[in-house]
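Subgroup meeting minutes
Present: P.N., E.W., G.H.
Scribe: E.W.

1. P.N. recapped why we're keeping a running log of single-chain structure predictions: easier to compare across weeks, and new members can see raw inputs and outputs side by side.
2. G.H. added today's entry (177 aa).
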Amino acid sequence: MMKRWAPKNSGTTARLWLAAAATLAALALTACDNQRADQLVEDVSTEADVKRLFGDPRTVTIAADGTRTLEYPRQPEGEANYVMVVGADGKLKSLRQLLNTDNFAKVQPGMDREAVRQLLGPHARERRFELKKETLVEWRFRDGQELKVFGASFDNAGKVVSTSITLDERTASPGGK
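Output recorded in log:
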């Protein structure tokens, strides 16, 4: 009779492997996005170039002047939210990665939720704290080599109460706990 070997506490081992796989997938996506973005040149690349490299955008907003804003959010597992503006002439006018310290500094108490969404793009996670009567909305981002989370707490009226930046809990301790 053959005995099978299984590590003790295999549930923990499985969680560690899953966390490692998720982190590697997010890193691969980020690396690929950076390489794709480096291939685009403002006022030279076309909307077709953008779509060839990034695929179809999640959202397209068309302004009265024909300018098209293409959104490529990478949340909840990614570390970026891209917005690309294509002029009426079909040329890329700007490529921005929204999740950065300059944009985080613009999020101020009293700001409404839609204004924050316009500034940072779709979020990664949302949690409600009933006793505080607040909702914490979070975006994952990379700060150098560290994975971090920007959080904005909103009151019941949908206004920013406070903000924070913390280490991403998935990398702060083994197994993300």
